[in-house]
């Protein structure tokens, strides 16, 4: 299978979905993003990325869990798929391998 | 209970309107939640701001749409049926090509009709673009103005675009707003490079500031210094090649006029573009005038231009210039006429100045012969735009008519498609795509026609238009978008109308358009024929007028007359040359005279008075001729005798034309009467005795009335008119040239024929006739296409009716008559409407001519018959076809 390309932002969102483990939806993902990375992005960015991830088959979604806070409207909750999981692991693996190839002195502080 | 923490309501409304429906619920919820979160963290303002940003980020075009159908992700090949998807488009195209191919005739007629309309439009667009682009290539084009003179003397406008030589200097000195002022003086000179000489008609004397005002691209030499020294010449590329071939001309010397004054070449410039109101082959530095006493009103030969600062309102300056002119011209009036400006104006005269923007000189200036080059006319531009618009409109309407007519034929196809489950929208798309395809094909054909016809069009208009304008992205997009729009519009009727029928009805083939739409169609036919008939009448009138002018007795014989030009350059040998020419057996007579009785002469009218009535001045034209003039041109003496070389008293004799005799009041026996031909500054009168009367002849063009003419015997060199016997003309010309060169004059040998010159005078009329013929041909063609479309349509509509009529015993003839008469009505209406309009228009045009044809009733009859004949011919094809159809075929469905 052709490896599906995963952009940096997509990767982070996918990680958030994985971290939140079934509790991830627009708001929680945005908040987690802000909390962990300090990035404040518009909601549209997150929204579009989630749809794109779903089109690529890395996440699935389901409507549910309405609360009074949001006027009784349902949320779309996201769950990572096996494919998404594997993609994340592959990236992680790739990074690991590359890090091992780094000459040891490059890791010294002060070496730009 | 209202929650206090709520985002602005209008923003949420906006969101609900713009955000895709299928994700609206979750997104609205998410945004509300985020708003609360932000509200707690950073307060209301920031939360609202953030909310708005978020809303913007989830409305189109930023938002990504979630596809509703979950299956989409698992089966990527599945496509929804109801939108414009590529397989469907492929199918539409396939069907379109098939049906267009099946109806070859109507397809090609439709394409050609629209293509001709488009091609005409494109050509006219090119023409107009060129007309509007005059003089815009100068960098300062919008700041350059020409100063002209307004003057009225004895009720006649004698102003023009020129001023005296001092105006430019005074303007620059007295008015600080004028950055630069420069003058142009038109000239003509014999120029020689030592070995061969040429007559240069396109020569301008210019100030050193010329190149600072106008943008003249120099190839060689320094624009700032090229025209500063006296006797400096700047050549155009072409002229440089003419004199020096491929050598570098800068620094070389050219000899001017018969005195062979050396002029040094200081530069070479690019050839002047054709869209300029002045053209030149050479620029010569202005000779230094002894500028003491010349002023503004004396030697009014200088075109004076000024440059203003950027964004300066020239109307403001006009007032200042007017003040200055009042002072300067006023002083001159005082000096020459001993009149103050006030007294001058009290006599009903007037004077003043005006400014003309450079870019408007070509189209708006009305000084005709006084311009540096003949100008255009903004009125013609409007007329031609109107013609183009009409042509395009008619072509589009026809395109629509024909498309509809052919679409109706396909009602069965529509029915079958509907039964098989085709949705309305698909049918609409099918028809729209077909007509857009046709329109695009028409555009391609139109471009082809334009490419092929451009050389002829250039010949007709005397322009050098190129297709470069069409490569302009803006124009190209406009053309394509316009064409597609026409296609969509034309396709819209069948698309929306036909596809809305019930399948059962269409399958039965019983689509009938309402009566109303037929009336609209006949109205359009009437409109088309209105234009066609007007054009035919105009063409016929122009043709008659042109023939009339050429067949007119002009009063002299223009056949076999050769004119040798510039014979004054032979100095004293002119007579010798003439005498030598006459010795040739091929020559009958030869006359030396500056006057050629054709075209506008530069001569002014001069007053003459009869001896008995010295107060009544008759403005007449003076001709100075020799004794051979009248026989050479074959003019007819009514009374008296011609001049004679042998009678010394003939130096104070004159010959008049009939009009002059009448004007002087000598109806009976004019011979021997005396007139005052000259009064010198001291009031001494010179009397001349009339020895003969020559019958009236046209000495200008037939546009003007024959005026009074007085012929004097006198040395007036310039041309030798030679009457030749028919025969070996090339040999004669060769021997003339040889003899000419034996005198080694500064001018080259050049000649023309009188009848060629005569034809040239009417070149303008000839062009008008050609243009009219072309356009009326095109409109007839396009109107016929329209009629053809309509006939097809009605024949189609009435198939059943015809079938029934035939079954009941109608003959073919009666059916054809029935179908044809429908079309006669709009044409007759068009004839009735067009006749007065065309009559009025042509009457206006004919007013320019002193001698003109009368517009006869048969012009209209001819135009009407022609239109009806052509229309019947067009319609008959369809009606005969319909009448000959076996009724079984048309009725079998019942």
Descriptive overview:
- The complex is a heterodimer of chains A (112) and B (894).
- Chain A has one domain (8-100): Arc Repressor Mutant, subunit A (Orthogonal Bundle).
- Chain A contains four helices and two strands, in the order H-H-H-E-E-H.
- Chain A has helices at 8-20, 26-37, 43-56, 82-101, and strands at residues 59-64, 75-80.
- Chain A has a two-stranded antiparallel sheet with strand order 1-2.
- Chain A is elongated, with a radius of gyration of 17 Å.
- Chain B is of the alpha+beta class.
- Chain B has four domains: 9-72, no CATH class; 148-355, no CATH class; 378-547 and 763-891, no CATH class; 561-755, no CATH class.
- In chain B, strand 7 (253-256) and strand 8 (261-269) form a beta hairpin.
- Chain B is globular.
- Chain B starts with 8 loop residues before the first helix and ends with a helix.
- Residues 71-82 of chain B have low confidence and may be disordered.
Describe the protein's topology:
The complex is a heterodimer of chains A (112) and B (894).
Chain A: H1 8-20, H2 26-37, H3 43-56, E1 59-64, E2 75-80, H4 82-101
Antiparallel strand pairs in A: 1-2
Helix pairs in contact in A: 1-2, 1-3
Chain B: H1 9-18, H2 24-42, H3 44-57, H4 71-74, H5 86-102, H6 104-132, E1 144-153, E2 156-157, H7 167-174, E3 180-192, E4 197-206, H8 210-213, E5 218-220, E6 232-236, H9 237-244, E7 253-256, E8 261-269, E9 282-285, E10 302-307, H10 314-337, H11 341-346, E11 350-357, H12 361-364, H13 378-408, H14 411-419, H15 424-461, H16 473-498, H17 503-507, H18 515-551, E12 561-564, H19 573-583, E13 587-592, E14 605-610, E15 618-625, H20 629-632, E16 637-640, E17 653-657, H21 658-664, E18 674-679, E19 685-694, E20 709-713, E21 720-724, H22 729-742, E22 751-753, H23 754-761, H24 763-797, H25 799-807, H26 812-846, H27 857-884, H28 887-891
Parallel strand pairs in B: 4-9, 6-8, 15-20, 17-19
Antiparallel strand pairs in B: 1-2, 1-10, 1-11, 3-4, 3-7, 3-10, 5-8, 6-9, 7-8, 12-21, 12-22, 13-21, 14-15, 14-18, 16-19, 17-20, 18-19
Helix pairs in contact in B: 1-3, 2-3, 5-15, 6-13, 6-15, 6-24, 13-16, 13-24, 15-16, 18-24, 18-26, 18-27, 24-27, 26-27
């Amino acid at each position: 299978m052709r490896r599906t390309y995963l952009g940096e932002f997509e990767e982070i969102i996918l990680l958030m979905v994985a971290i939140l483990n079934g509790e991830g939806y627009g708001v929680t993902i945005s908040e987690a993003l802000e909390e962990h990375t300090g990035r404040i992005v518009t909601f549209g960015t997150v929204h579009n990325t989630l749809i794109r991830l779903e089109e690529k088959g890395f996440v699935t979604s389901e409507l549910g869990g309405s609360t009074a806070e949001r006027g009784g409207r349902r949320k779309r909750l996201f769950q990572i798929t096996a494919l998404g999981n594997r993609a994340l692991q592959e990236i992680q693996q790739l990074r690991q391998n590359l890090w091992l190839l780094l000459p040891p002195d490059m890791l010294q502080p002060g070496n730009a | 209970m209202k929650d206090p923490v709520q985002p602005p309501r209008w923003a949420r409304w906006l969101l609900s309107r713009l955000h895709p429906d299928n994700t609206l619920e979750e997104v609205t919820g998410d945004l509300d939640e985020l708003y609360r979160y932000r509200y707690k963290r950073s307060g209301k303002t920031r939360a609202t701001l953030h909310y708005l940003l978020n809303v913007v980020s989830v409305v189109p075009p930023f938002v990504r749409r979630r596809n509703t159908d979950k299956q989409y992700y698992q089966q990527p090949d599945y496509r929804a049926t109801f939108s414009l998807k590529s397989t469907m488009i492929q199918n539409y195209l396939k069907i379109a090509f098939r049906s267009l191919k099946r109806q070859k005739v109507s397809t090609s007629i439709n394409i050609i009709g629209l293509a001709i309309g488009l091609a005409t439009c494109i050509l006219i667009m090119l023409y107009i673009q060129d007309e509007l682009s005059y003089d815009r290539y100068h960098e300062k084009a919008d700041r350059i103005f020409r100063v002209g003179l307004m003057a009225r003397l004895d009720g006649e406008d004698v102003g023009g675009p020129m001023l005296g030589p001092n105006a430019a200097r005074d303007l620059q000195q007295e008015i600080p707003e004028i950055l630069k002022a420069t003058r142009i003086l038109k000239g003509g000179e014999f120029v020689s490079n030592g070995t061969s000489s040429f007559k240069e008609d396109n020569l301008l004397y210019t100030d050193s500031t010329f190149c600072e005002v106008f943008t003249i691209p120099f190839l060689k030499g320094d624009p700032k210094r090229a025209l500063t020294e006296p006797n400096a010449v700047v050549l155009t590329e072409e002229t440089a090649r003419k004199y020096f071939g491929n050598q570098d001309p800068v620094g070389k010397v050219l000899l001017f006029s018969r005195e062979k004054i050396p002029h040094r070449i200081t530069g070479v410039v690019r050839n002047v573009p054709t869209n300029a109101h002045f053209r030149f082959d050479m620029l010569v530095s202005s000779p230094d005038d002894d500028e003491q006493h010349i002023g503004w009103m004396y030697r009014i030969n200088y075109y004076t231009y000024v440059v203003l600062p950027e964004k300066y309102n020239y109307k403001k300056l006009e007032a200042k210039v007017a003040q200055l002119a009042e002072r300067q011209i006023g002083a001159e009036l005082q000096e020459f006429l001993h009149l103050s400006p006030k007294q001058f104006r009290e006599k009903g005269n007037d004077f003043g100045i005006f400014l003309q923007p450079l870019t408007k000189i070509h189209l708006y200036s009305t000084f005709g012969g006084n311009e540096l080059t003949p100008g255009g006319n903004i009125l013609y531009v409007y007329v031609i735009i109107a013609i183009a618009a009409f042509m395009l409109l008619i072509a589009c309407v026809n395109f629509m008519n024909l498309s509809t007519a052919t679409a109706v034929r396909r009602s069965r196809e529509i029915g079958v498609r509907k039964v098989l489950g085709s949705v309305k929208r698909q049918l609409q798309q099918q028809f729209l795509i077909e007509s857009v395809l046709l329109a695009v094909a028409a555009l391609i054909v139109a471009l082809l026609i334009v490419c092929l016809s451009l050389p002829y069009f250039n010949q007709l208009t005397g322009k050098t238009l190129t297709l470069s304008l069409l490569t302009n992205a803006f124009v190209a997009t406009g053309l394509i978008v316009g064409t597609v729009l026409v296609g969509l519009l034309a396709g819209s009727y069948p698309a929306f109308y036909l596809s809305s029928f019930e399948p059962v009805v269409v399958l039965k083939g019983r689509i009938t358009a309402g009566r109303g739409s037929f009336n609209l169609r006949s109205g359009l036919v009437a409109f088309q024929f209105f234009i066609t008939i007007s054009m035919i009448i105009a063409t016929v009138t122009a043709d008659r007028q042109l023939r009339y002018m050429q067949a007119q007795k002009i009063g002299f014989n223009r056949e076999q007359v050769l004119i040798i030009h510039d014979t004054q350059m032979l100095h004293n040998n002119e007579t010798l040359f003439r005498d030598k020419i006459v010795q040739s057996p091929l020559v009958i007579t030869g006359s030396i005279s500056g006057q050629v009785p054709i075209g506008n002469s530069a001569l002014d009218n001069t007053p003459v008075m009869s001896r008995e009535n010295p107060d009544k001045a008759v403005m007449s034209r003076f001709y100075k001729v020799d004794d051979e003039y009248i026989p050479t041109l074959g003019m007819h003496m009514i009374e008296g005798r011609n001049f004679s070389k042998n009678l010394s008293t003939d130096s104070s004799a004159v010959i008049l034309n009939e009009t002059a005799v009448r004007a002087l009041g000598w109806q009976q026996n004019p011979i021997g009467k005396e007139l005052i031909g000259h009064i010198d500054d001291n009031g001494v009168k010179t009397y001349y005795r009339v020895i003969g009367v020559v019958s009236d002849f046209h000495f200008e063009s037939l546009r003007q009335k024959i005026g009074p003419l007085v012929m004097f015997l006198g040395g007036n060199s310039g041309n030798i008119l030679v009457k030749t016997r028919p025969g070996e003309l090339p040999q004669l010309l060769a021997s003339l040239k040889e003899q000419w060169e034996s005198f080694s004059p500064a001018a080259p040998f050049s000649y023309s024929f009188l009848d060629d010159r005569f034809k040239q005078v009417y070149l303008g009329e000839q062009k008008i006739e050609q243009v009219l013929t072309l356009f009326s041909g095109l409109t007839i063609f396009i109107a016929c296409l329209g009629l053809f479309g309509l006939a097809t349509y009605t024949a189609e509509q009435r198939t059943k009716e015809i079938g029934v009529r035939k079954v009941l015993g109608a003959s073919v003839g009666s059916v054809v008559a029935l179908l044809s008469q429908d079309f006669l009505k709009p044409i007759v209406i068009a004839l009735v409407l067009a006749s007065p309009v065309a009559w009025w228009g042509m009457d206006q045009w004919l007013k320019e001519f002193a001698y003109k044809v009368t517009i006869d009733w048969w012009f209209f009859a001819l135009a009407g018959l022609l239109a009806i004949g052509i229309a019947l011919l067009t319609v008959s094809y369809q009606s005969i076809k319909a009448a000959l159809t076996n009724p079984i075929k048309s009725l079998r469905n019942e």
